[in-house]
Amino acid sequence: MHIVVDAFGGDNAPLAPLKGAALAAGDGVTVTLVGNEEILRRVAKEENISLDGITIVHTEDVIAMEDEPRTILKAHKDCSMAVGLRMVAEGKGDAFVSAGSTGALVMGATFFVKRIKGVPRAAIATLIPTASGRPSLMLDSGANAECRPEMLCQFAQMGSVYMSRVMGGGEPATVGLINIGTEECKGGELQQQAYRLIQESGVNFVGNVESREVPFGAADVLVTDGFTGNILLKAIEGTAGMLMKEIKSLFMSNLLTKIAALLVKSKIGVLKSRMSTSEHGGAPILGVCRPVIKAHGNSDAAAIRSAIRIAGEFAATGVIEAITEAAKGSTSDE
Amino acid sequence: MHIVVDAFGGDNAPLAPLKGAALAAGDGVTVTLVGNEEILRRVAKEENISLDGITIVHTEDVIAMEDEPRTILKAHKDCSMAVGLRMVAEGKGDAFVSAGSTGALVMGATFFVKRIKGVPRAAIATLIPTASGRPSLMLDSGANAECRPEMLCQFAQMGSVYMSRVMGGGEPATVGLINIGTEECKGGELQQQAYRLIQESGVNFVGNVESREVPFGAADVLVTDGFTGNILLKAIEGTAGMLMKEIKSLFMSNLLTKIAALLVKSKIGVLKSRMSTSEHGGAPILGVCRPVIKAHGNSDAAAIRSAIRIAGEFAATGVIEAITEAAKGSTSDE
Question: How far is it, in rounded angstroms, from Cα A48 to Cα A53?
């Protein structure tokens, strides 16, 4: 398996992608790092990171978080992300991984890698940690603020294929529609029409899911528009972040609570890492012709290694072929 | 102050409303309980609850959580909620409190109490506990799944008046628009247009607020459509509920963690009650001509007492007069 990695994407670039790539190379993966070769060789030397099994493709430009996503098509068409995407599009690599700007990655994937025929919009699918230990895949989580019912139905199909093949060992995935109540009549036009379309689409549909149930693992795949998905995802992140902070400060209040902290420290650490998004490897961009994985912006080396592993599984399990097959029946191409 | 209370609304009715009313009567409030008099007198006797300062208005019917909200207008027009709303509409009481069905309460408030002229839709405003210790008021949190930009602007104005007068001691309230990014251009048509309208409306607008910041207390008033509000509210509830459960089970794992639990028990209790919605008294239905407060469905006696106190402050602080004045300039009446 040959994975192309954006060496200059994310908060911890280029060190985390470099270290992550070295770890993946150690796992037997062929890795190409895209980015400024001089800097990469210097950092590798300074940090004593082996470049065995790693090829570097040189490019100088980088697209930043604050750059407009569409600049990847013109002003930043030779940034590390764009060059990597085009490599994978041309078959020079099996999958692409970047921890850079999500908007730019969706834009670049759509225009350089291209959408699958019959898929009107690519979606970002994000893994949400749950109490059940098994993460849920939510799509769309921000690429398309406004969606039509047919798009939600296609998200259901794409997510179902991905979760079943990449995360579920072939077991059929359950699919839920994010809504403000469980009854079929709930929500607006979008939800009501999407409900009927998903019900007839052949996926393992469990019906509407209220956001309250999401952290408990209500379904393997959670379908929603990008606006709602983004609100939901960040609400979970924010609430968990706030509570963890409150609990930390609670443990620091006096000597007795500090003793208590020592007694539960390792278990709190396990809970924190279970709740962390970086443990779960990265979010696929679904609906484009080649495997593209978005790693979390704050990914460390372990998260990049995990994203590279997931990218390999994404490429190996025929997800894109299955989505292409399913989309053939679709009439919703633009 | 004279508060009318639905004695048969909520999961713990009639005991919690009865006890809560008795506590409020002890605080010096005149309370009318609406519901089956025979049952109320029997329960009061069995539980040794004093009915001093409490009047009972007898009615036999009750609207249940599973009843369609609109049935309050016809099939259940004589339920305890409907009778109480009509009393307050007719001036037989200063405010109404119910822990019953939210949908039915909004429907009943809209048709029995009537909307303020110039307000196209009533909104449910919910208090969200935050890390800052000062709750945020979010509206709409579920009454109107689909909203127009003018409605969001009116929610901003109504919420601002309520938070400033009832919760803020007259200090101007900050107002944020729930969105998927902080920049003005973020979100769909609804958010972009609402942004401009709110900016020109004269409220203390702090701009877009991402859901991630909500648990930290991003603004006093959070404006959004009812679909997004409901998703956000339940995501916060679900995540907090899940984490508290995980932490509880973590403390139960072995002898050492059980000792740790004893050392931090009281502080965890304080955190839990700070995060609890029932501590904050109840959610106003804004946009109707008389004060109506929705208490949480699982309200206990203390929560009902607190809702009665808030209902009194709502009635005493001229909120409805100020909203009526602000709505006069509006052209968005239906």
Answer: 15
